[in-house]
Amino acid sequence: MAVDILFADLSRARNPRDYMARKLQDFYRTSRATPDEIRALVDRVYVEGDHNNFPLAAPQDLPKLSEGQKKFLDGETALFQKLVDQLSPLIEGEEIRSGSDWATLLKADFHDYPAGTPVLVRETSQATIYYLYHLAQVTRDGRFTYVPNEPEPNEVRANQYEKQARIEALAIALWADLLLSVAKGLLGAVGGKVGSDLLNALFPGSQGIDVKKMLDDFSAIVAEANKVQTVSEQAGQVNGVLISNSEYYIPRKSKSTSKRELYETLLTYHNKLTSVIGTLQSKSAGVDYTKAGLPVCVLAISTHLATYQEMAFQDPNVSDPHESTNVDSIRIAAASNAAWVGAKADEIITDNLNARLAKISDVLNNPVCDGVGSGVVCKSRYFFTDDATGYRSGYYEQSGCKDDAQKRCADARAAYVENVRRQCQADERKKLDWAFESAEHWTSLKETPLPKTS
């Protein structure tokens, strides 16, 4: 059920236990609860004393709401009241007190109920009752979210975490497309431009790539990637090559500068890019640049391969660029870097997947104990939680001598984990498509190291 019931003040009831039993009988009339089970619930749903024993938020404790949020929550409150009316109708002779039915929230966790759980306080002529809408939660900034926590045993539902992951994948589209364009261009896919002309077409003038935007976005995939100073410095080195290519090399090339002079300039770019790639593919002083620097490394590799292509065309030692030793260098660099980037992207996916699955608890037990005669009988209630989404499964209780509630819960958890695993892998892979696809284009250079020029 979406709503739970707790009794606070029973001082107005003639026979409190009988009153509670009658209310609970109505409340659970659609369930399979037996009269004995209803009677056993009586001791568990009574909050002794007054509101001081229950963390209800006073008006001053409630979130500050915008007009839109207030209007939305007013509508949700009205629906909550209607649901309570259906689930817990007034019994004969019971009346709602004037000014009752006020909605609030839990200001702190209370047993299984997290802070922010909506509560409807109903004061009648017989009692004060708290109705908790445990499938929802109101955050400190006034946002209303649903938290499904009573699925069918093997039902696995999509949740907000996976939706957010897909949103993050879209956020990196712009610079990721640019990285892919460089990789595709190595095969002549950008207007047939090759080498330095390709780089100039994609990074004209003093433009370069927006390093801050790229690393800020990538920090959603690799935490704090934008905080690793060495990565930013290496990105600056790559941008330096791109800017120099457009502002210095291209103008000199258009003025019929000798191949030897152009080649010497290209060698400086080659050496700088080789250094950048080496730095980003290594770990230094306990700092791992290999993950945080992946997008910069991909850009550096494609830029380096384009530079190799230009070096083949400007090689002063050959008349046919296909005979340049740089052609073999392209094949070797493309293959080794494609393998490295693919493996590193897989490693990032595995890290993020493991971190995601670690948010899912093992099978937990929240036993309920009742007094029977002079003893106490405890009944196990198994469940599991997902801290990433705030999800909590329903309780799994034994329903017969041969029933294994713990195994049913474990099976449900396994199904939930598998669903999260599949979705997380797909989402993380989507975020890194630009890396995998760039590596695929580099691999194609083994057969076509130099595209045809018009």
UniProtKB/TrEMBL annotation:
<comment type="similarity">
    <text>Belongs to the delta endotoxin family.</text>
</comment>
<keyword id="KW-0843">Virulence</keyword>
<dbReference type="GO" id="GO:0030435">
    <property type="term" value="P:sporulation resulting in formation of a cellular spore"/>
</dbReference>
<protein>
    <submittedName>
        <fullName>Uncharacterized protein</fullName>
    </submittedName>
</protein>
<dbReference type="GO" id="GO:0090729">
    <property type="term" value="F:toxin activity"/>
</dbReference>
<keyword id="KW-0749">Sporulation</keyword>
<dbReference type="InterPro" id="IPR036716">
    <property type="entry name" value="Pest_crys_N_sf"/>
</dbReference>
<keyword id="KW-0800">Toxin</keyword>
